[in-house]
Amino acid sequence: MAVWHIVSDTSCDLFTLEGGEGVFDFATIPFTIRIGETEYIDDDTMSVEEMLTANENHAEMAQTSCPSPEDWREKFEAPGPVLAFTISSALSGSYNSACAAKAMILEDEPDKQIAVIDSKGTGPEVAAAVLRAREMVLAGKSFDEIEKELNRTVEETHIVFALASYRNLIKAGRVSRLVGFIAGHLGFWGIGIGDENGQIAMRGKARGDKSMVRQMVDEIKKIGLAFGTIRIHHCVNEEGAAALMRSLKAAFPEAGIAVMPTRGLDSFYAERRGLIVSF
Q1: Nearest Cα residue to 121 out of 269, 272, 271
Q2: Integer angstrom CA distances of residue 272 from 58, 242, 267
Q3: Span 159-278: which CATH code?
Q4: Of 11-15, 61-65, 96-100, 157-161, which range is least confident?
Q5: Residue 7 is inside which H or E element, if any?
Q6: Which CA distances in Å does 43 have to 94, 124, 222?
Q7: Strand 275-278 vs strand 229-234: parallel, antiparallel, or unpaired?
Q8: Which pTM was predicted?
Q9: Which CATH number fits domain 4-31+66-156: 3.40.50.410, 1.10.10.10, 3.40.50.10440, 3.40.50.720?
Q10: Cα–Cα nearest to 124, from 274, 12, 199
């Protein structure tokens, strides 16, 4: 039986995926962040702290580059079915690159099984889809069953975030300067969600950590849990993530909750202390 290949761009924040020996392998394809003359590759050697500090001390807009079609194609060429995951197509060209690579492979191998999943989110939402893929591959599901279920998963999974700074999102044109001014200069947290199109939609603001946690929990209560699991990814904010997890456990005692730090790309956009939650 051919080994499955689970591949994601680094928006998933995962480095490894356990339990796949002889059944699947897992790889991530890095984004690149250029700050001034320095290029940071979002791999396992990258220092998030160094990148954040460099960006905070750099006045000009840094640039991010998504994986190229050739980067994806290299991973897609291995024998066996491929499940690929990307950050929201509304936020990056990574999904289009992966689709272009799929088209190139299918020209030569029309029967090759490749699913490219647009997460319509980032961070924990991508990770949740990757973990769901692992679960189904290990359960012996067929390629068609898995692809269908993964598309349902990303449609029904939601994302909410709280950011203390919107500097990079403003410069990238993702949010308005007014929102960024409120969050960054007046001491507020900006609370937002990923909408149904995978774009950023602002929900409000919160002064202080306790108010931020309360509003995030309220937003999740309002929408409801899709699959009974919650993932919290944080940018250099273990304390804030722990406080949010305690409140979420009180609100959803039956839910499984996982916490982990963001990798380079999500750290760049979430910025220091940022919290991203999927549910």
Answers
A1: 269
A2: 15, 16, 7
A3: 3.30.1180.10
A4: 61-65
A5: strand 4-9
A6: 16, 18, 36
A7: antiparallel
A8: 0.93
A9: 3.40.50.10440
A10: 12
